[in-house]
Amino acid sequence: MTEYEYQGGCLCGNIRFIAKGLPNNPHTCSCTMCQKHSGALTLCWVEFPKDSVQWVGKGGVPSLYRSSDYSSRAFCSHCGSSLGAIDEGPTIGLILGNFDHHESKELIPMSHSYPLSPTEI
Ligand SMILES: [Zn+2]
Ligand SMILES: [Zn+2]
């Protein structure tokens, strides 16, 4: 059986993570919240159970901004990189651009949420 393990972190390296296990729901999203969170029109996401993600950088856990009733957006308070979404539930969404290696086939987005409006493309 393949052991899945991914490492990544923010632009300055203060926040680092290790995520273990098969990622769930690889997808892209162009909702307004993702756009404002990142400054990009579209984000690539993968999800892991909370207890599969360890924050291992010297900055510890990322800073959080409460973005909705069920989720907070995670970011590095030093460099400002967007890192993911930490839900009230058992799931953490990580942004694929922060991964050191994101070319594995199980990370390829399989669906898209909130298509861009024609005025944005
Ligand atoms: Zn940083
Ligand atoms: Zn979104």
List descriptors.
lyase; 3-stranded antiparallel sheet; metal ion binding; mainly beta; CENP-V/GFA; 10 strands; glutathione-dependent formaldehyde- activating enzyme (gfa); globular
Task: Explain what you see.
It comes from Xenorhabdus innexi. Keywords: Lyase, Metal-binding, Zinc. One of its GO terms (molecular function) is metal ion binding. There is one protein chain. By secondary structure, the chain is mostly beta strands. It has one domain: glutathione-dependent formaldehyde- activating enzyme (gfa) (Alpha-Beta Complex), CATH 3.90.1590. The chain is built from one helix and ten strands. Strand 7 and strand 8 (82-87) form a beta hairpin. It starts with a strand and ends in an 8-residue tail after the last strand. One zinc ion (ZN) binds at residues 29, 31, 33-34, 113-114.
State the CATH topology: glutathione-dependent formaldehyde- activating enzyme (gfa)
Spatial strand sequence of the major β-sheet? 6-7-8-9-4-3-10
The total count of strands amounts to 10
Overall mean confidence score, pLDDT: 94
* First-to-last CA distance: 42 Å
Backbone structural class: mainly beta
Number of domains: 1
CATH superfamily: glutathione-dependent formaldehyde- activating enzyme (gfa)
Helical stretch tally: 1
Task: Give me the CATH architecture, please.
Answer: Alpha-Beta Complex
